[in-house]
Amino acid sequence: MKLLIPLLLASLMVACGPNQTQTTTPIEYTETIALVQPALSEGLTINQALWLRASSRDYSTEPLTLEELSGVMWAAAGINRPENNHLTAPSAMALYPIRVYAFTPEGVYRYDEQSHSLLRVVEGDHRELSAAQEFAYSAPLNLVYIADMSRYEGLNLTAAKAEFLAGQDAAGYAENVNLYAAGHNLKAITRGSLKSAEVLTLLGLEKGHTVVLAQTVGK
Ligand SMILES: Cc1cc2nc3c(=O)[nH]c(=O)nc-3n(C[C@H](O)[C@H](O)[C@H](O)COP(=O)(O)O)c2cc1C
Q: Which of 80, 114, 126, 165 makes an SS bond possible with 92, Cβ 3.0 to 4.6 Å?
């Protein structure tokens, strides 16, 4: 009985689904993708999302809507306090070294939190570089978290400590996305596996940057 009640609650939440997004706009993969502002009243409660959060390794090719893509990017690294430009995710010493790259079927984009938009950095489908597991190659969105290690310069940190902190930051970004996904009827998984060297070469970030984490989001 103790276990039955939470299970019943969970199935009820899934059956009801999150509050539906009012509009569902298809994504146009232009040079700049202007993202929409998050609707704070949508989605499951944080407790419901926590209950449902799970890693998924099974994705369809169904695209995300612009509203879903916007919410995912905002959850990862969006500004939630414009007065000091701090983000939805915390960052050690507020250094914010993490850059979020979105690998889509039609290009690789960098998330610009100031304009809440995605800026195309490479054309074409490079999702296979952003993963090492087949389920990710055709999923609609793979995020790659890359640290700009210059942010740690002058702090007298060892390289290992700086990489540790960058990894901790990225894990926070990724968990925000996992919870956003769980609360909006999307699937997600945090991944450590990807083709890091090839990604850095593709993006021209061989110097001073480290790939710290990746993530798949889809349906
Ligand atoms: C830092 C990190 C890296 C991970 N890397 C991978 C990965 O490369 N491939 C994968 O299939 N799962 C990966 N996972 C997912 C874990 O395997 C998963 O969280 C674990 O099996 C527990 O399952 P759950 O997330 O559904 O609770 C990773 C998770 C974390 C936190």
A: 165
Domains of the chain, earliest start first: 4-218 (3.40.109.10)
Whether the CB-CB separation of 202 and 49 falls below 8 Å is answered with: no
Tokens encoding 93: 């010493």
Under a CB-based contact definition with an 8 Å cutoff, are residues 103 and 126 in contact?
yes
For the chain, 219 residues long, give each residue's pLDDT as a single digit of tens: 444 444 444 544 444 455 454 689 999 999 999 999 999 999 999 999 999 999 999 999 999 999 999 999 999 999 999 999 999 999 999 999 999 999 999 999 999 999 999 999 999 999 999 999 999 999 999 999 999 999 999 999 999 999 999 999 999 999 999 999 999 999 999 999 999 999 999 999 999 999 999 999 999
Around ligand 1, the residues with Cβ closer than 6 Å are 54-55, 57, 133, 189-193
Q: Residue 74 is inside which H or E element, if any?
A: helix 66-77
User: Which among 52, 55, 56, 133 is the best mutation to test ligand 1's pocket, defined by most ligand atoms within 8 Å of the CB?
Assistant: 55
Ligand 1: which residue has its CA nearest to atom 21?
55
Residue nearest to atom 4 of ligand 1 (CA): 191
